[in-house]
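Box 3.1 A note on notation
Throughout this textbook, protein chains are presented in two layers. The first layer is the amino acid sequence; the second is a token string describing backbone geometry. Keep the layers aligned when reading.
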Amino acid sequence: MSKSIIFTGAEPPKALPQDLYEPGDFVIAADSGYDSARKLGFKVDLAIGDFDSTALFEEIKKIGFEQHDRDKDESDTCLALQRATELTGNSYVLIGGGGGRLDHLFATYSLFDQFGPPLRWYTAKEICYLVSDCQRFDDLESGMTVSFFPAKLTGSSMVQACQLRWPLQNYELSFNSISLSNRTTGKTLDVSTQGGDIFVSFPVADGGIKMIP
């Protein structure tokens, strides 16, 4: 199934998996997310926003783009998610948006309640994987740092993840009880959740995580 790959501004990763893009995927850039996409070697299908922070607007004019007024209610990322939902439903990957202004970070996070959370969220410092039911993470190293937090601001769930230094057994995960900086104990981590979707987050320095259906 095709997905949208959405690039935002605010501290994108230095690199992305080579197999992230698949035939049929649609690449959308929100304002300076276009600069990030081009730097990471991605061809953008649609750029959207007020373009007040990109350094490549002349280049953007040569592709498909939607320009909006700077004085608007929606953020550029919100506009990108609206268009992505129309094109590929709620199947999308988010690139960037993990740093910079705190208000922008919270504004982006709040969009997950409206549009659904991303399948994966790549920032400059972490990779967040969406888990909606059960998921196995393979090819890990013992002692890798891993954190768990809700995929929506209003989320709450019961989490099981036992191959950890501090096992999570029927752990009630919410923004009142985020599980930070646990550590893996082997090459495999099985995670299951009941209730709301969660993110399983690995620092990018650890690298090399495979997500196995």
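Residues 102-115 form the longest helix (14 residues). The mean pLDDT is 89.
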